[in-house]
Amino acid sequence: MILLAAACLIGVAVGLVLPKVSSPLAQMTGQYVATGPVAQVLATLPVDDHPSTRGYDRDSFGYNTTDDDGDGCTIRDDILKRDMTAVRYRAPSACQVKSGSLREPYTGKTIGFVRGKRTSAAVQIDHVVALENAWQSGASKWDAATKQEYGNDPYNLLSVDGPANQQKGSASAAYWLPANRKFRCAYVARQVGVKQKYNLTVTTAEKQAISKVLRTCPAQEIPQK
Length: 225
What we know:
This protein is of the alpha+beta class. The strands form two sheets. Strands 1-2-3 form a three-stranded antiparallel β-sheet. About 40% of the residues lie in helices and about 10% in strands.
């Protein structure tokens, strides 16, 4: 009986662990099968398993150099205003955010933002689908105007924890997800929404990683703004 119980425990352990280390087994056990609105959109995205960053030029996206809404504010300040509460401005400007409180999505913590050389980096503006990821997913073929639109599109921008943003870098969902598990469904849903909006590709690994998250939240919707 003891041997039988031990064998059962080993079998359960193997069943739980192997799908995580073996993609074929994960597919067989349904780890990558998701349903719902986001999964339906994800299924329409073209797959490219040979992406290239050749010629990547971050500056070509013109992040924080345009004022598309004509309000005289930089996109960084626009996103800080949108995402934070208790916002105060640096006089006499009605644009430059001096301070505020951010309920930070990637870590789940609250950050008290204060503008300054040593403090501003505590809150950074993240491209949810990173610029380099976009480049290798199709953006390398865009004209200059489309690249600048993408680089400054509020739909793809979030105020986030500086260290978490640095940790993420240009990684796709296949290699990085927010530590705050409660935000992961919203995070991958926005990534899918961005890739749909700009006709970008995904890799198989990226698609599988997103699907694994979506299995936990089939009712998740694509963000509308």
